[in-house]
Design goal:
Length: 500
């Protein structure tokens, strides 16, 4: 009989009964019904508490996995501390029955005694609820570029501290065997230039014909810089210019059908003899103003030149020992790159950051990076500098600076082609760095920045703005503080990529 009909029939019998017997029976049945309803309230509350308890148990298990503690007594102490921290005076209502953490798997058994509201009617003053949790530690993929200042001011103890801190970071990220297989680290040692590797850099990414508008800045007709190197008996050293805007700060893949996306092999142009302190190394064939003399290609037919010729740089930062280390999980290759770092040259953080961006990108010229948008991958850069951005040399010439990956500071005014802009070199390069950081962050790359023994407020603020958020900027005041900063970054990266 449906429950509704039962109550209807019972009500009619109650109203028609005159003996009183039915009233007694109904009272007994009603008491049972009311008691059952009351107990159901306690059971519902217990069920809700069990769901909450499961969340607590899962959180403790995850904490145990991340903490890496294996001693049972210390694990229990950590669990009780977690409960006290999160539940205060109510923490004693929880009891940790068992907690084990072994080989990246944590098991937790937790129970709670819940007082009943109505259960006392049936002799049930409380209900004990128990749950179990198992958490298996897994690691998401990590693509990480270390963009590290190798300028002259890093010489000595600062470089030693940087190498140690970098190795410490590798130790932490590769500590777990499960993490090693999915962790790729790349290295970009930078000064004024970044050496992308003359033997590993695919010629398909270079402007081999001189078709790019960028090439026409220094030459009066399309010409292959690589052919000029060969013609003059000089080896290309592995450095490239940054592309013209907007490709100078992004990770657009080089495409031979779009010459302006190709990279130009660095080639210091022979500058006019009559252009102040300009660098001139071959005899000139034409007369005219400094730009006409600079752009004359015919003068490079001569194999006679002074100094390093087109391989001259504003500093020694194209050192082949400091080639980029592409993303890899080969720990030996990463540590070799760290070991080979050496201090020399001017400071061009923007150029270093742009190559760090391209290192973690899935796009050519480096294609080791995992695809963008992969929910199982974290992409990150760590950018460290100890100084303001600079470009040295030839300030007395029409081009206002030495030859850099972004060309010459005076180039827009002299040639009409935009390379750098700003009242001074620092402003120009700072703007470029912020553009790189914005482009990287737009691709969901997590950016950490570090200023090392640097008290310039403007540069500190710039690096803070470059970071993904203020907490990911570190101002390190001494060599002793550098390793802790790197360890904190490693811990943050580990936190970002631990899942269960």
């Amino acid at each position: 009989m449906p429950l509704r009909d039962f109550f209807k029939c019972t009500t009619q019998r109650y109203l028609q009964d005159s003996s009183g017997q039915f009233a007694i029976i109904t009272a007994l049945v009603s008491s049972l019904l009311i008691g059952g309803m009351a107990i159901s309230i306690d059971i519902t509350a217990a069920h809700k508490s069990k769901s909450e308890l499961q969340s607590v148990s899962d959180a403790i298990a995850l904490m145990a996995v991340k903490n890496k503690e294996t001693n049972p007594a210390r694990l229990t102490s950590l669990a009780n501390a977690y409960l006290a921290n999160h539940y205060g005076a109510d923490a004693d209502k929880y009891q940790v029955l068992n907690i084990v953490n072994s080989n990246g798997t944590a098991n937790v058994s937790l129970q709670r005694v819940i007082p009943t509201v109505f259960g006392g009617i049936l002799g049930m003053d409380d209900i004990t609820v128990g749950v179990n949790s198992t958490v298996n530690q897994t690691f998401q993929n990590l693509d990480l570029a270390l963009v590290l200042d190798n300028t002259g001011s890093m010489r000595g103890r600062k470089m030693r501290a940087l190498k140690q801190a970098s190795n410490d970071l590798v130790d932490i990220l590769y500590e777990e065997p499960k993490a090693r297989a999915v962790t790729q680290i790349g290295l970009v040692p930078f000064s004024a230039w970044v050496n992308v590797g003359k033997d590993s850099f695919d010629p398909a990414w270079l402007d081999m014909s001189g078709a790019s508008p960028q090439n026409q800045i220094y030459f009066d007709r399309a010409v292959s810089r690589m052919n000029l190197y060969s013609q003059m008996g000089v080896n290309w050293d592995g450095c490239v210019e940054n592309r013209l805007p907007p490709y100078d700060v992004d990770d657009t893949a080089p495409d031979t059908s779009q010459p302006d996306t190709l990279f130009q092999p660095a080639f210091h142009p022979d500058m006019a003899d009559n252009d102040g302190r300009a660098y001139s190394y071959v005899a000139e064939n034409v007369a005219g103003d400094p730009i006409q003399r600079l752009r004359d290609v015919s003068k490079y037919n001569s194999v006679s030149f002074s100094g390093k010729g087109p391989a001259e740089r504003s500093d020694t930062s194209c050192d082949p020992r400091r080639e980029v280390t592409p993303l890899t999980n080969n720990e030996g290759a990463i540590r070799r790159g760290i070991r080979n770092m050496n201090a020399s040259g001017w400071t061009n953080i923007a150029n270093g950051a742009s190559w760090g961006f391209r290192l973690v990108s899935p796009n050519a010229p480096f294609t080791e990076g995992r695809p963008y948008g992969d929910k199982n991958t974290t992409k990150a850069m760590v950018i460290l500098t100890d100084g303001q951005q600079t470009m040295g040399g030839q300030s007395g010439s029409s081009f206002k600076s030495g030859y850099s990956p972004f060309g010459f500071l005076g180039e827009p005014a002299v040639t009409g082609r935009e390379r750098l802009s700003g009242k001074n070199v620092k402003e120009a390069l700072d703007n470029k760095l912020l553009e790189v950081c914005s482009a990287a962050k737009a691709k969901k790359i997590v950016v950490y920045t570090i200023t090392f023994e640097l008290d310039d407020t403007n540069t500190q603020n710039m690096m803070r703005s470059c970071a993904s958020q203020p907490s990911k900027y570190f101002s390190v005041a001494s060599s002793a503080e550098l390793a802790p900063a790197f360890k904190q970054i490693a811990a943050s990266l580990s936190e970002l990529r631990v899942s269960h």
